[in-house]
Amino acid sequence: MASKLELKDLIRPDNFIDGKWVAAASGKRFGVTNPATGEVIADVADSGEADARAATDAAARAFPAWRDALPKERAAVLHRWHDLMMENADALGRLISLEQGKPFAEGRGEVLYGASYVKWFADEATRIYGDIIPQQQRGKRMTAVKEPVGIVAAITPWNFPLAMIARKIAPALAAGCTVVGKPAEDTPLTALALVLLAHEAGVPPGVLNLIAASRENAVSAVASWLHDSRVRKITFTGSTPVGKYLARESAETLKKLSLELGGNAPFIVFDDADLDAAVTGLLVSKFRNGGQTCVCPNRVYVQSGVYEKFGDMLAKRVAALKVAPATDPDAQIGPMINARAIDKIVRHVDDAVAQGARVLAGGKRLTALGPNYYAPTVLADATSAMQLSCEETFGPVVPLFRFDDEAEALRAANDTPFGLASYFYSQDIRRIDRVSRGLEAGIVGINEGALASEAAPFGGVKESGYGREGSKYGLDDYLSIKYLCQGGLE
């Protein structure tokens, strides 16, 4: 196979199990549609319990050899995988845009972002150190070593169909684990394309297995992994209710869990903030992928002294954003993923307006473009009684809440069961220290709207989950510590 592929070469509609492309055992298929048009892109394998079990069987057979491979050998495979992702960044970016809807520039950017995790963990594979414990008794030597946990089940969402699965597979393979995975039913083609490139890079048969499943069959497919004692870890990105379900159902076999769950991120603008920088930071953090990210601000708190000015500045910038299909090179925001997403946005905006919110920009569907488009929206005079204050809108809607002092802002920001990301803008160094410590979140942006990096730990607190992805800490979630005590040395 040539290294550089066309978009059509990347579309693989079957499961990848034990190094082979195979249909679902049932023979069933389901359609993956383009959210911009509603047209079916491909009919993919609709997997169930039998397919999930076959994937686990393959991963179990492959695990001993992959575990025992030298770290530099695993690293070499991951580096080749990274290189193939970079060589095919344009085609992968177009595939992301096709099935997810984000503009091509964002789709290609996601490829580079996902590839950065593969490269990072390729390097980290050779840095899995243990410890020699200082001697406590004569004649005894004590050491601690790190070993791969075993088979990892990776379950990923639709909003970043390449990056989310890359940053789960890469550390698992670097640690010496084997993987079974299921991407979201809305966007399985990108993940399957990624596996295609991994196979070309030299990932051995059985080390990486991926199945697709419709919404109707996903529960039975994943249940096979939850109850199989050979699967030792679940890594999941998605909603908090599903994360809690996975935790409950996997308790029977006491699996290790990494859960990156829902968010309800606050974005605080203090009256001493650089307002131009704050508006730019909010645009970057909020409107990436049309607001369909778990770390995008959902509640924007603006101090009274700058509230009206900030709202006017923001509304002008938001109104200028271009909404268009990903095929338009000037598109800045594409369609939402499906009709359910649009329905939730409409419900939140209608509820807010009914309770007194003022529409400063947007506030309407863009049906002339297609069924799944919504105008970037700014709402003033938001309150805690509105639905959008306690539910993730997951769309291009910015509600502005007014506050008077720092203590009030912190109370409001933390008044949520979630704690994934928080943002604030201030030029007061004492306030920066206080607010950084006071915010209950796993990730805090200080005068910055773009937070993600392969070198930084990504994850939340409270009901936003536990575990970390990326950074040196991200590898630890795929390793177990073994203590060795050797006696009789005198």
UniProtKB/TrEMBL annotation:
Q: Name one GO molecular function term.
A: succinate-semialdehyde dehydrogenase (NAD+) activity
Pfam families with a match to the protein in the record = Aldedh
Which top-rank group of organisms is this from?
Bacteria
Which SUPFAM superfamilies did the record assign? ALDH-like
Record domain Aldehyde dehydrogenase: where: 21-483
InterPro entries attached to this UniProt entry: Ald_DH/histidinol_DH (IPR016161), Ald_DH_C (IPR016163), Ald_DH_CS_CYS (IPR016160), Ald_DH_CS_GLU (IPR029510), Ald_DH_N (IPR016162), Aldehyde_DH_dom (IPR015590), Aldehyde_DH_Superfamily (IPR050740)
Q: List, from the UniProt record, the residues annotated as the active site of this protein.
A: E260
Keywords assigned by UniProt, alphabetized:
Oxidoreductase
User: Could you mention a single GO BP entry for this protein?
Assistant: gamma-aminobutyric acid catabolic process
Which family, according to UniProt? Belongs to the aldehyde dehydrogenase family.
Q: What is this protein called?
A: Succinate-semialdehyde dehydrogenase (NAD(P)(+))
Q: Which organism is it from?
A: Caballeronia humi
